[in-house]
């Protein structure tokens, strides 16, 4: 338009273009117009402008060119008026776009900063809300000690990770409370069981030494001392056996064993203590495949566990009939020891695995309350399970489930 306005093909067109330009086109800041008539085909440049040679080469080849230097834009064409060739160049600065770009940069920067601030703020609120149950849980755990192990964490109804964590903590606290109570009971009962024979031994010794006595009196005193010393030895040996079964099962020597042979060995051990026992081994449940009776275990420990269970059955049934059944599945070898004794009260069943605990109906039947906890520890070492069910005055059934050797 600049070219046609200044170098028109006719006066009318020049007037029309100037009017259109003045009325409808925006006047850009620092707008300047440059003209150069080409008299030499080798020189298209305008000395007043410091434009690169590529700009003029484009004019020569394509008849138009453009260039930008900092904030100034240059646009040029090669205009023809008759036989004349004229280089027309327009230069201007687009302040509107420049301001728009500055505003856009400012908006983007402010938006970026606001977005970061909003993200941090929302993240803080979100994390505070998310970790609120964990903070409450942490505070609650700090309040729990040995004096109030009965306290528990509140569990929400949602099936999420926080609920699972609270449930796991409560299960752990249940085990800790049970272990702590068992330990307290063990210490209390052990001190009582150990101090009773010691007190008797010391009392008899002091009584015997208090004055001169005849040989028979000394002999009676020594017999009492011997009996209490043997009782003390038995308690200590039971405690040692119980402690040894607390070791990791991998430290025990495990070999391939047949459970029917273990039962016979345990029966032989009971025969030496109760020669007139009425233990009857029931072979009717045994599988036809003898391989199903084989387990991997420690022979001496398993024999000890079975012996203790059989001795209990004889002792608490007044030496009545005791049935020992041997069976097997593809997964387990099953041993059933059933007596017709005094049974265990329902209120005492939950405590039968506590060392030194004895049921309320045992009366004057001698015992230390270690046999059953010892047997369960041994069964656990062998990755098995021991179950006890009982009815008062009808008898007790002990079930042992030991993993078959084929599972290993």
TrEMBL record:
CDD domains for the chain: HAMP, HisKA
PANTHER family: SENSOR HISTIDINE KINASE TRCS, SENSOR HISTIDINE KINASE YKOH
Location(s), subcellular: Membrane
Gene Ontology annotations for the cellular component aspect, listed alphabetically: plasma membrane
Upper classification of the organism: Bacteria, Pseudomonadati, Bacteroidota, Chitinophagia, Chitinophagales
EC numbers, comma separated: 2.7.13.3
Organism this protein belongs to: Taibaiella lutea
InterPro entries cross-referenced by the UniProt entry: HAMP_dom (IPR003660), HATPase_C_sf (IPR036890), HATPase_dom (IPR003594), His_kinase_dom (IPR005467), HisK_dim/P_dom (IPR003661), HisK_dim/P_sf (IPR036097), Sig_transdc_His_kin-like_C (IPR004358), TCS_sensor_his_kinase (IPR050428)
Catalyzed reactions: ATP + protein L-histidine = ADP + protein N-phospho-L-histidine
Protein name in the entry: histidine kinase
């Amino acid at each position: 338009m600049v070219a046609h306005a200044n170098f028109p093909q006719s006066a009318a067109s020049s007037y029309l273009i100037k009017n259109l330009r003045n009325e409808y086109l925006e006047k850009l800041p620092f707008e300047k117009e440059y003209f150069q008539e080409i008299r030499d085909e080798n020189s298209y440049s305008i000395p007043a402008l410091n434009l690169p040679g590529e700009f003029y080469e484009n004019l020569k080849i394509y008849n138009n060119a453009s260039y930008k230097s900092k904030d100034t834009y240059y646009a040029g064409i090669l205009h023809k008026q008759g036989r004349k060739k004229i280089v027309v160049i327009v230069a201007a600065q687009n302040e509107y776009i420049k301001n728009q770009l500055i505003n856009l940069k400012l908006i983007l920067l402010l938006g970026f900063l606001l977005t970061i601030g909003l993200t941090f703020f929302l993240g803080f609120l979100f994390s505070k809300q998310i970790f609120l149950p964990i903070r409450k849980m942490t505070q609650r755990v700090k309040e729990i000690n040995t004096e109030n192990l009965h306290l528990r964490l509140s569990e929400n109804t949602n099936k999420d990770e926080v609920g699972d964590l609270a449930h796991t903590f409560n299960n752990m606290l249940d085990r800790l409370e049970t272990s702590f109570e068992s330990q307290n009971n063990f210490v209390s009962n052990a001190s009582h069981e150990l101090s009773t024979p010691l007190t008797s031994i010391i009392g008899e010794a002091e009584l015997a030494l208090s004055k001169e006595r005849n040989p028979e009196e000394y002999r009676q005193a020594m017999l009492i001392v011997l009996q209490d010393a043997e009782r003390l030895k038995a308690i200590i040996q039971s405690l040692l056996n119980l402690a040894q079964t607390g070791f990791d099962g991998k430290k025990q020597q495990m070999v391939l064993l047949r459970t029917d042979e273990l039962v016979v060995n345990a029966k032989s051990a009971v025969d030496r203590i109760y020669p007139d026992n009425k233990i009857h081994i029931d072979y009717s449940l045994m599988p036809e495949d003898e391989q199903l009776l084989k387990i991997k275990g420690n022979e001496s420990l398993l024999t000890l566990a079975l012996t203790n269970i059989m001795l209990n059955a004889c002792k608490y049934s007044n030496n009545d009939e005791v049935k020992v059944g041997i069976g097997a599945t593809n997964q387990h070898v099953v041993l059933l020891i059933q007596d017709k004794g005094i049974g265990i009260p329902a209120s005492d069943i939950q405590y039968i695995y506590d060392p030194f605990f004895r049921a309320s109906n045992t009366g004057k039947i001698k015992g230390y309350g270690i046999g059953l906890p010892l047997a369960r520890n041994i069964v656990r070492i062998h990755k098995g399970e021991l179950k006890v069910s009982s009815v008062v005055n009808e008898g007790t059934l002990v079930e042992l489930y030991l993993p078959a050797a084929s599972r290993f």
